[in-house]
Amino acid sequence: MPTELAAIYAPVEADLARFDRLFAATLRGESPLVQPVLEHLLGYQGKRIRPGLVYLSARAFGRPTEAHDQVALVLELIHNATLVHDDILDEADLRRKLPTVNARWGNETSVLAGDLLFAKAFGVCAKIAAGPVLASLADAAHRTCLGELTQTRRKYDLTVSEEAYLGIIRDKTAALFAAAGLLGSRLSGADPQSAEACRAYGHAVGIAFQIVDDVLDLAGDEATVGKSLGTDLAKGKMTLPLIRLWSILGTAERIPLQSLLLEGHGDQGRAFVTGLLSEHDVLAYARERAREFSAEARTVLSGLPGSEARESLEALAEFVVGRSH
Question: Which end of the chain is more exposed for a tag (fewer CB within 10 A), N or C?
Answer without folding.
Answer: N
